[in-house]
What we know:
The protein is an alpha/beta fold. The chain has helices at 16-25, 34-42, 46-72, 90-93, 103-111, 116-121, 129-146, 158-168, and strands spanning 6-9, 30-33, 76-79, 95-100, 149-152. The longest helix has 27 residues, at 46-72. Bound molecules: shikimate-3-phosphate. Shikimate-3-phosphate (S3P) binds next to loops. Pathway: Metabolic intermediate biosynthesis; chorismate biosynthesis; chorismate from D-erythrose 4-phosphate and phosphoenolpyruvate: step 5/7.
Amino acid sequence: MNKGNIILVGFMGVGKGTIARELVKQSSLFAIDTDDLIESIENRKVKKIFEQDGEQYFRNLEKRCALWLEENVSNTLISTGGGFYKQENLNKIGKVIYLQSSFEGILNRINNSEDAQKKLKKRPLLKNLEEAKKLYDIRVSDYIKVADIIINVENRNIIDITEEILEKI
Ligand code: S3P
């Protein structure tokens, strides 16, 4: 069944949240972010959840969130945490858009942003850049596998990117 949902997936810092906010401005879509959902049911930040209960606990919350989305959400733009693409029911939730960029492109984007330190600090898996690059290399082919649509976002302005997405969905 087509639920009319659009799911944005991609590596940490690629711009899923920013692109989601622009898409909402330019369309009648309503938006949900999986990290925000998890933070609201837990009443604490993702960073705290990792520190206090570890990554596996967080992954279980993502799974719970994915099941909830499948059952309850339609006609919504869903932006996701960088590891959410692993959910087995992803394609049952909606159409998956992979926001693609090289690792260097992502680092440049973060470093050129006004709140670079904040962006790095809130992401436990970006603490060690060598480890983060390894994670990127592991994930990159999986993002492509789960994607219905691939959008290259590297070195492009947000208006161009959102226009392309709106044309393709
Ligand atoms: C994660 C990405 C984060 C957040 C958590 C784990 C990941 O979301 O869900 O820190 O595994 O890539 P962003 O992609 O929004 O940074």
